[in-house]
Each structure stands twice: as structure tokens, then as C-alpha cells.
Write a structure and sequence with these properties.
12 strands; about 350 residues; disordered C terminus; binds S-adenosyl-L-homocysteine; 11 helices; alpha/beta; globular
């Protein structure tokens, strides 16, 4: 085996790496093993059609990227949260969500996050490192295997776990290609969620795959957004909206805005009116996802009461904006939006109230 594959994890390895590793073997082996890893979701050990000596080499030279530290299942058995350890000791979380009509995995793109949104547990813990293509793809493979064990089929991937996907663009786009081309998930079932990194959104605008884009807005004026989402100081709303408009014109695909409702901060009627104004300024309708803020240790303010959440949604609808209240998944296992911190010690300031499941 050549030095190029040394230290690569099995889903970081390219076909060329595999060919290298299998030098001297019949050509079909590469396809056979690639098929085993991506279509059968097999461990190299399980590829019984491959000679044992080769399986051993693969097992040794293409180690897994993720070691399971904890696997937790929520009360309703519909959410599974994984805590994985990566090479070097960083930890990340991955969340598998089983809905009656679909199965979705929420993957991490970085260990930690540098965006420092104060209401997000990952932001509170800070940035550790970027994930590689293989570390991202393997999260999807692990979730797909688990779904299969439960007689379900994983069909959707959302980049809404730890990290800012567009701050680790090369690895995220590389992973999307693998997930699409090799795991065979449709691009329309893949969603990248961004805090609003304008250069990354521009790159997605030019990219051929028709995946979904979600932008975490949370505020519709610069003074509030500067506070809630600090990167807004670099990419303010005017520029962000212009970039979103270009994206919509080029792609013709639906764009969603994420809005975590924070009691008394961004849940007033005036906030809904400002948000509706932004949505109406776009060339195609945007969809608003409302998430009652989930509690995190480092943020004092709590989520909006459900009555307010519904009033906010109703007002948006009256103003002609499509809005959905996201169901809160996995709050009992700290697996909900913004609660992923991979066991990092986040300083405990106050505990917000737990918001109830709603739809
Ligand atoms: N960095 C990316 C993706 C990760 S977060 C982004 O910002 O979009 C996924 C979503 O959860 C984002 O919309 C984020 O703003 C939201 N979120 C973060 N903390 C939250 C919390 N405490 N309660 C509810 N949603 C939260």
C-alpha cells in the first residue's frame, strides 16, 4: 500500500486511494469494495466476497473515523443522539430523527463553532477543528445503518448539527458529493443551514447540485442581528438579502429562514412585520421555520411561550409568509437545535424553561 492512504479514514479514501491500496488485485475489487462501503453500508470485515487477507488490510489501513462514546435514545424512541470521538480526541454529535413519514439525520460539520451565536450551545463552547469529508460522510453512514436496523430508510440529511458548514466549505461540498453520488441520496433531500456566510452562499449559487439552503436569520434588523448573530457585523442583512435574492433567481429553489423565537427579544409583532418585509423583498417566496428557543446553559433568556409562538406564526401567515413551527425533537437528551455541545463544559449561567413539543 502506498503512503497516500496512510492515516486516511475509510470514507475519506477516494477510489484512487483504494486502487492504490489494492495494487496487484483484479480491477473489479475497487468497485466491489466501494459498493460494499457505500451501497451495502458494510464494514470491510463484513465483505465476505472479498478474500480475508484483503479485508484485514482494509480494516487496518482504512480505519473508521468515528468512535461511539454514547448513543442515547429519547423518551419516545424517535430520536437517537450519538456522541462520537474523532482522531485527536475532539467530540461531535449526530442526531437521527425518525418521523412517521421520513428519516432525517442532522450532521456536524465542525467540532465546535467559531460563529459565537450566544443562544447556541455549540457557539458557547467555541471552535475546535474542521471535520474532514470522511468524518462527515461516516456520520450519515452510521445513521443509515441504524435506520436500516429499525426497518426504516434514511433519506434526508441536514447540516444543522455542530459547526458552520459554509466555514468548512470544501469538506462539506466534498461530503455532499459523496452522499449524493455514492450513497445515492437525492440532492433535494440535502439541506445546508448557514448563519449567513455570503461568500459560501455565492458558491452554492454557482454549484450544480440542487440542494436546499436554510439561512439562520433570527433577526430582521441589523442592530438586533448584530447582537444575536455576531457574524452579521461582517455580512449585514442588506448584503445577505441581496445574496439570497441572487441565489433564488439562479436556482429557483425554495429558501428557508430559521428563526429561534426568544422571549421578548425577537418574538414581538414588530419583529414578525420586519421579517415579512424581508421575505416580501425576495424574488421568490421564502419559507420561515420557527423554532421555540431551546434551553442552553450559557444563555439567560428563555424560549417564547407557545401561545406567542403561534401568534407569531399566525401574523406571518396573515402577512403572506409561509411559516411552520418546528417540532422540538430530543430536548430530553439535549439533542435539539442549538443544544449540541459534545459534553463541553459550558459555563452554567441559568437554565431556560423547556419548550414543549409543538407543531
Ligand atoms: N451553523 C449553522 C447550522 C447549525 S445550527 C447555522 O447557524 O445555521 C442549526 C439551527 O439551530 C440554526 O438555525 C441555529 O440558529 C439554531 N439554533 C441554535 N441554537 C438554538 C437554540 N438554543 N434553540 C433553537 N434553535 C437554535
Amino acid at each position: 500500500m502506498s503512503a497516500t492512504t496512510a492515516g486516511r479514514t475509510r470514507y475519506d479514501a477516494t477510489r484512487a486511494d483504494l486502487a492504490d491500496l489494492l495494487a496487484g488485485q483484479p480491477r473489479f475489487r475497487v468497485d466491489q469494495i466501494w459498493h460494499g462501503l457505500y451501497q451495502q453500508l458494510s464494514e470491510p470485515d463484513e465483505l465476505t466476497a472479498v478474500p480475508k487477507s484483503i479485508r484485514n488490510t482494509l480494516q487496518e489501513r482504512l480505519p473508521p473515523a468515528l468512535a461511539t462514546v454514547v448513543e442515547r435514545v429519547s423518551d419516545g424512541n424517535d430520536t437517537v443522539k450519538y456522541l462520537f470521538e474523532l482522531a485527536g480526541g475532539s467530540r461531535i454529535e449526530t442526531v437521527l430523527m425518525l418521523y412517521p413519514d421520513r428519516v432525517t439525520v442532522c450532521v456536524s460539520s465542525q467540532a465546535g463553532c467559531a460563529m459565537a451565536c450566544g443562544f447556541c450551545a455549540t457557539g458557547q463552547a467555541g471552535f475546535t477543528r474542521h471535520l474532514t469529508v470522511g468524518e462527515i460522510v461516516e456520520q450519515v453512514v452510521r445513521a443509515a445503518r441504524k435506520a436500516r436496523q429499525l426497518d426504516r430508510r434514511l433519506a434526508n440529511v441536514v447540516f444543522m448539527g455542530m459547526g458552520e458548514p459554509l466555514a468548512n466549505e470544501a469538506a462539506v461540498l466534498g461530503a455532499v458529493e459523496r452522499i449524493h453520488d455514492d450513497l445515492g441520496l437525492g440532492a433535494r433531500h440535502l439541506t445546508i443551514s448557514t448563519v449567513g456566510l455570503v461568500p459560501g452562499i455565492k458558491r452554492l449559487t454557482e454549484w450544480e447540485l440542487p440542494m436546499n439552503l436554510a439561512v439562520s436569520l433570527h433577526a430582521a434588523n441589523d442592530s438586533l442581528r448584530d447582537e444575536l448573530v455576531p457574524i452579521n457585523r461582517r455580512y449585514p442583512l442588506g448584503l445577505l438579502m441581496e445574496t439570497c435574492a441572487d441565489y433564488l433567481r439562479a436556482k429557483g429553489r425554495r429558501l428557508s429562514f430559521e428563526w429561534a423565537l426568544i422571549d421578548g427579544i425577537n418574538d414581538r409583532d414588530s419583529d414578525a412585520r420586519e421579517l415579512a418585509g424581508l421575505c416580501r423583498s425576495l424574488p421568490l417566496a421564502a419559507h420561515v421555520n420557527l423554532i421555540p428557543l431551546n434551553p442552553t446553559p450559557g444563555f439567560l433568556t428563555r424560549g417564547s411561550p407557545l401561545k406567542r409562538v403561534h401568534a407569531f406564526r399566525d401574523l406571518l401567515e396573515q402577512l403572506g409568509v409561509n411559516a411552520t413551527v418546528r417540532r422540538n425533537r430530543g430536548t430530553d437528551i439535549d439533542a435539539a437545535c442549538g443544544q449540541l455541545a459534545a459534553g463541553q463544559p459550558v459555563q452554567l449561567v441559568s437554565r431556560g424553561r423547556r419548550s414543549d413539543t409543538s407543531d
